[in-house]
Design goal:
- Two copies of one chain form a homodimer.
- In chain A, strands 3-1-2-4-5-6-7-8-9 form a nine-stranded mixed β-sheet.
- The longest helix of chain A is centred in the last third of the chain and has 17 residues.
- The first copy, chain A, contains six helices and nine strands.
- Chain A has a single domain, classed as TIM Barrel (Alpha-Beta Barrel).
- Chain A is of the alpha/beta class.
- In chain A, helix 1 packs across helix 2.
- Chains A and B meet through strand 1, helix 5, strand 9 and helix 6 of A and strand 1, helix 5, strand 9 and helix 6 of B.
Chain lengths: ~240, ~240
């Protein structure tokens, strides 16, 4: 019998809107629960315990059945997101999906290392910059990288301001061999119960242009700068 | 003595706005002259012979000096674009740049195959769909793929409508082993002498959403759908 997963939502396929797999058709499995409380979190409905009643307990078999249904049984890349999906027992789901040809990417802050990271098609580590008001445990981040073994691993840093940018430079200096993606922050994240709230896309675009200029001015040619494409196309709307 | 290149513009670094290298800092080398006349071409200033007087004859040494200056001597990926850069002798430039640690990607329609494709870090082949009013020579496209040997090769198809989408499916069926990128077309390309002309970004975004829906409805999970990010961020403006 496999462990129970707490699932906030399963949706898609749509395209991955950010990071290394931008543009790739994917089904999102968003788990409920997080060990962080980033002040600008854009997924509070999957983080704050007051929404816990909306998180369904599901077995890996049930989750896989839903992924299969949504994808028409045609294998694709599944994105495990949250909340922090690393605090949940995803190993069985990954094993089951891989046996059917599905791939798995995970988005996590790198605060919990798991053996099953090594079974991923992509481990996206998003340590949180100063603007989040969270702290980075560098030893655990390293544990995550080590746990992935040969699984492709990338870094993704959300950048709001100069302090975040300096943090991103520090992360890159600590892990020069890992690809790094920079992403302008969304200062207008949706309230947890209103996905129709307006996004200040002009402001985010301005931050994106600033971030490009910043990277170029520093000749930081190994960085890759990408926006949240889904926000540009669909705003804060959920399920796309 | 190396051959003379006809150069429309060299600019950057900025980020690559589309396709496999989206978000990557790059210097663009745009050559002048093209064997195609796509009806929706967004770079007519580098295509139409009436702008030939704006194309500077430059040696590979001169072009490399400009790339070095723009990039502050810090190696990056150089994007060869046009016009059709494959109609020009780029071999010396690529050899020279690679010796200094620079990488080279090329964007070409796949109408001319070159030995030096094998020296590229990425060959982006963009055969033109029906809406362009151009014809595809499938044998030459195959020659291009063969010429690249082990160089990473990807397909990129601009899609305006159902006929273009069907063409993209056909291209993918002919080359199932190559990664394929789909890109919504810009029906408001800039006139060659006015890069401040307005872009109908809402219309392009709607086409992007349609294209995502189309791909998902077909369970075409191997396709990757990406917009022209630079147009979203900077409109038709040149040099960014």
């Amino acid at each position: 019998m496999s462990d129970v997963l707490r699932i906030s939502e399963i949706f898609g396929p749509t395209i991955q809107g950010e990071g290394a797999l931008i543009g790739v058709p994917t089904v999102f499995v968003r788990t409920g629960g997080c060990d962080f409380r980033c002040v600008w979190c854009d997924s509070l409905h999957a983080v704050n315990s007051e929404y816990r009643h909306t998180w369904a307990p599901m077995s890996a078999v049930d989750v896989m059945a839903e992924i299969r249904r949504l994808s028409g049984g045609v294998p694709l890349t599944v994105t495990l997101s949250g909340g922090n999906p690393a605090i949940q027992p995803m190993g069985d789901l990954i094993e089951m999906g891989r046996a059917e040809g599905y791939g798995f990417a995970i988005e996590t802050q790198g605060s919990v290392a798991r053996d099953w990271f090594a079974q991923l098609d992509m481990l996206v580590l998003s340590p949180k910059p100063p603007s989040s008001e969270m702290e980075t445990d560098w030893a655990i981040l390293q544990d995550c990288i080590d746990a992935a073994k040969d699984a492709p691993t990338v870094l993704k840093i959300v950048v709001f301001d100069e302090a975040d940018y300096a943090y991103a430079r520090d992360v890159a200096a600590r892990h020069p061999d890992l690809p790094i993606y920079l992403q302008p922050g969304n200062h207008t994240p949706p309230p947890p119960e209103d996905d129709s709230a307006t996004v200040d896309q002009d402001g985010i675009d301005a931050r994106m242009r600033w971030l490009v200029d910043r990277v170029i001015a520093d000749h930081w040619h190994a960085a890759r700068v990408l926006p949240q494409l889904h926000v540009m196309l669909w705003g804060n709307k959920r399920g796309v």
